[in-house]
Amino acid sequence: MSNTPLPAIGTESQSDTIHFLFLLLPPYLSKKFTATELMGSMMRTPRRIVLILSVLALVLCYPTRSRGQAALLMEEPYGFFGTLNPTGHTAIYFARICAETPTKLRRCEPGEMGSVISRYSDVAHHDWVVIPLIPYLYSVEDVSEVPERVNRENVHRLRNQYHEAHLLGLGKDVRKGDFWHGGWTQLVGVTYERRLYAFRFDTTEAQDDAFIERMNRDKNRSHFELFYNNCADFSRKVMNFYFPRKFRRSFFPDAGMTTPKQITYKLVRYAKKHPELHLEVYEIPQIPGYRRMSRTNKSVSESLVTTGYALPIALLNPYLAGGLFADYVVHGRYHLIPKDPKKLLPDDLTTLTVPAAPAENLPNASEQVHSVAAANAESNVPASLADDPGLKEPMASHE
User: Fold this and answer.
1) Residue 384: inside a domain
2) b/e string for 30-62 if b means 16 or more Cβ within 10 A?
3) CB 255, CB 332: distance < 8 Å
4) Is residue 18 classed exposed, middle or buried when 0-12, 13-18 and 19+ CB atoms within 10 A define those classes?
5) What sign results for the dihedral spanned by CA atoms 169, 74, 70, 161?
6) Would strands 342-343 and 97-101 be described as parallel, antiparallel, or unpaired?
7) What is the pLDDT of residues 31-87, one digit of tens each?
8) Which of 48, 55, 229, 331 could lock onto 252 through a cystine, CB 3.0 to 4.6 A?
9) Do residues 86 and 306 touch, judged by C-beta distance below 8 A?
10) Does a structural domain hold residue 234?
11) Are residues 88 and 106 in the same domain?
12) Does 270 lie in the same domain as 350?
């Protein structure tokens, strides 16, 4: 039995405290005292008893699981393609997961801001690519370099600099990207083209470590398809990895297709039933100057009913137009963004990495989800995974 004395209160450093908790206190507590020794010890060192009781209270109250943050990013549509397909894009941010390379994950080191992972088309035949948070949003590596306003020349220069420094490993045959085809330009500087909404939720270390192992182990081979294997389908499978069998395809309102708005709605609905996720909603503003302001995300039926598609559909098939309108009214009018969400400017992005406090804007985000949509969103289409060698949806029967 060690005879090392306990440290005096008020004199211990942080390392002394850790040494005391794990090395000195257990043998001290397990030591057998006679009644005379115990009374004498208590009379001689009353502060020691206070210390022991304080440590025990700290140990009992200390959380058993360390939590990190993740966020589902719902990104608004922009440009001419955003007019044709106003569903937008989705990606997932992890505060604890960083990029070893654009196609390999690792745990973040202290001081790192995490990374964003998503599915893209025409990026060296990869199914997914991971980019550090700051470059993903602004094409720079330090928030002090983020411009307040940009033009076309600035955006191209910043993207080219980051590509030459970090993305050449994807291969020389990766195209830059244009209207018809994706490319490496869609991986960086996202806020120069659109506004994002971050729906932040809690994860555990065990979940993140299992996800890293799974993604690094599976083949990262693209099977991108716009309608049934798109970016939102990838986010759906990632969310199912963390919350098994909770994010499924829906017949209504998206005709079996997965959209960013639909997958975000399912997260908001799930978080309403599970407040321990500490869901919080933030706006990441678009940097002005390069493009016109992006538009609101829409579901499939909403896209067809509230845009220029409505008139030709009504002329060609009035019954189809009526069905789409009914689907939109009954299922597709859920609102996800709370009134006046907190805006995260470049200097505020650390908010995504710190432990979540009880969310003040969670009720706003949840209460605006229509109960009619919640009652009908369980109509599901079985997701075919046979042709996807990437992330599989785990099968589980528990909540």
Assistant:
1) no
2) eeeeeeeeeeeeeeeeeebeebeeeeeeeeeee
3) no
4) exposed
5) positive
6) unpaired
7) 544 544 544 544 444 455 444 454 444 434 444 344 578 999 999 998 887 777 888
8) 331
9) no
10) yes
11) yes
12) yes
Range of the domain at 24: 14-61
Helix (H, G, I), strand (E, B) or coil at 271: helix
Read out DSSP for 164-232? IIIIGGG-TT-----SSS--GGGGS-GGGT--EEEEEEEEEHHHHHHHHHHHHHS------BTTTBSHH
> Does residue 237 share a domain with residue 114?
yes
Retrieve residue 173's tokens.
């045959």
Q: Where are the alpha helices (DSSP H) in 274-317?
A: 300-305, 310-316
How many folded domains does the chain comprise? Answer: 2
Copy the structure tokens of residue 169.
Answer: 């490993």
Same domain, 39 and 100: no
Q: Are 270 and 336 in contact (CB under 8 A)?
A: no
Statement to judge: residues 259 and 332 lie in one domain? yes
Q: Summarize pLDDT for 262-299 with one digit per residue, the tens.
A: 999 999 999 999 999 999 999 999 999 999 999 988 87
**Count of residues in the chain:** 399
> What whole-number distance in Å separates Cα of residue 121 and Cα of residue 125?
8
268 and 367 fall within a common domain: yes
| pLDDT value of position 271 | 94
46 shares its domain with 96: no
The answer on 338 and 197 residing in a single domain is yes
Q: Which residue stretches of the chain have pLDDT < 70? A: 1-67, 178-181, 252, 306, 308, 310, 319, 321, 324-325, 327-333, 355-399
- How far is Cα 370 from Cα 26, in angstroms, rounded to an integer? 54
Q: Give the global pTM.
A: 0.71
**Is residue 20 included in any domain, yes or no?**
yes
DSSP-derived secondary structure for 61-101:
HS-SS-EEEEEEEEE---HHHHHH-TT-EEEEEESSEEEEE
Residue with tokens 């049934």: 228
Please give the structure tokens belonging to residue 172.
């020389």
